[in-house]
Amino acid sequence: MNICYRGAVYNCSGYAQIRHLFLQLHKRKHNVRIEPFNSKDNVKILYENEFIKLENTKLKKPYINIISGIAPQLTIDTEASYNIAHSMFETTELPEKWVQLYNQFDEIWTPSNFCFNSFNRKDLSCRIQIIPFGVDSSLYKNIQKKQNQMFTFLSIGQWIDRKGWDLLIQAYTAEFMGQHDVRLCIKTFNDQKSNEEMIKEYLCKCKNSSYMPRIMIKNQKVDESVLPVFYQEADCFILPSRGEAFGLPFLESMASSVPVITTNFGGQIDFVDQTNGWLIEIKQLKHLSERLCKINSAFSNLWFAEPQIDDIRNIMRYVFEHRDEVSQKGKISREFVLNNYTWEKITDIAEAKLLEVFEKL
To answer: How many whole angstroms separate alpha carbon 135 and alpha carbon 336?
Structure first.
């Protein structure tokens, strides 16, 4: 097959992780060219030299064009025989203004059933396929023994409202106020605020105790190869998101034998359930904040979930007190991910769908 991929490659965004699929397709002897969007982050990604080589692949016709991003970032390639948009969104519906942009394409790839349902509407004429994200099995091959004996909740994600940092910090500090044997570790990136500024507004103002439970923040982008170190020092991963298109950090955590606590809403429930993790019930669906709608008027009248803060507290306490169950669910999580969500497995799915298309060109 002849394939051209256009999208983020050399950065830490979720979209950029689809690069691993195209490297796998190249290894299976398909003719793959990548044309990166965006500048490089100041981090090292795995197999960077191999991706650079794919920038120099000579594109042959007929070819399939795959472009990655949200609708306003996408354009079709008029020279391609078939155009695929790789896209996703974190709310229950798409912005109305985006539908005509997507309708230029022959097909849409989206990573979860949650996104499929958002895209699956009568006025969207192109075919929709679910192509999940995966993990690099070699990166999570060796699980190191946890060094710190303190019970550790880990959370990784962008410092944005959607991730539910306010809910997490309020729930954690309220539930574990005065407790010395637990910590919350946050890996994020925000170059506009200090660590203290980031969490101060969310802290529980409880006056019954003089000791605030530990919160540790790594406010820095890190090389891709370093990520497993964060997961290996955790007992349980938690992120009470208001909306996720897929939730790759949940998958990476599970691959590291660390079970997850997440909201019962979003793309991550394709692979997280009560057998391998814990699901936070949602209080209600709420319109996106006024601040977000001012940033982009297309977001008006769209919905996020609002997780129940009491349920977050109760689950964190339960997990803290039932460590044998945490360990068992961690083992189940790792086995499930390595059997179903490696990039090799995902490439099997994508390759079959692409061959179906290419044979008709």
So the answer is: 12
